[in-house]
Amino acid sequence: MSSCNTISVIMGDIVDQEVDAIVNAANNSLLGGGGVDGAIHMAAGPQLLEECRSLGGCPTGEARITRGYSLPAKHIIHTVGPVWQGGNAGEDLLLADSYRSCLELAMEHEIRSIAFPGISIGAYGFPVDRASVIAVSSIREFLQGTELLTDIRLVCFNQNAYDNYSSAVDRIFND
Ligand code: ADP
User: Which of 22, 46, 87, 101 has an alpha carbon within 20 to 30 A of 110's alpha carbon?
Assistant: First the structure.
């Protein structure tokens, strides 16, 4: 990691993050759902759904960007992580694709600060120990090519997620 990049793991609600972009763990329709997706749509307001309707969905591993509407964040980057199917259906690569797609879109939009939820670790059932290592490794690899992203936050909604993402950051960034 360059000295200009900062990655942090925090406990909190992603909708409260004052960053250039928050990431939504959406589904293929991009038309809203439960979990973090529902919380983001609720907090951003109904104009978000209108803009999402115009996008025509999103394949797993890709990402799309919208405005943030009523959120403190200016943008929302919607990505679709893989549904866990036991680990032999390309889930690891698809999860890494999701993180990379979000970071690529962030670069295109000159985003400096970005907050991620634990993509796929909720309803999609990805084991959090494995997901956290993939998340942090993907971010680290991406950061080696840029100094523009100065504030990357991994926002955890429960203690178990916090413990897993924290230990992944400790191991992967301090090796
Ligand atoms: P997925 O379908 O990708 O698994 P979920 O929304 O079900 O997505 O869960 C992803 C993670 O987001 C879970 O760890 C869940 O606890 C967490 N989460 C749910 N609501 C919020 C929120 N408001 N802010 C941050 N994280 C949240």
Answer: 46
For 156, the domain range is: 2-173
Compute the distance between CA of residue 157 and CA of residue 159 in angstroms, rounded to an integer.
7
Answer yes or no: is the C-beta of 14 below 6 A from any ligand 1 atom. Answer: yes
- The conformation of residue 74, written as its DSSP 8-state character, comes to S
Distance in Å from the first CA to the final CA of the chain: 11
ipTM of the predicted structure?
A: 0.98
What pLDDT, in 10s, does the model give residues 65-122?
999 999 999 999 999 999 999 999 999 999 999 999 999 999 999 999 999 999 999 9
pLDDT interval class at 2 (50, 70, 90): very low
Number of domains in the chain: 1
Ligand 1 atom 15: residue of nearest CA: 122
> Is the minimum distance from the CB of 97 to ligand 1 under 6 angstroms?
no
User: What is the rounded distance in angstroms from the CA atom of residue 83 to the CA atom of residue 173?
Assistant: 27
Nearest to 141 by CA among 130, 133, 131: 133
Q: Is residue 145 very low, low, confident or very high in pLDDT (cuts 50, 70, 90)? A: confident
| Catalytic machinery residues | 37
CA distances from 35 to 10, 14, 122, 136 (A): 18, 11, 7, 21
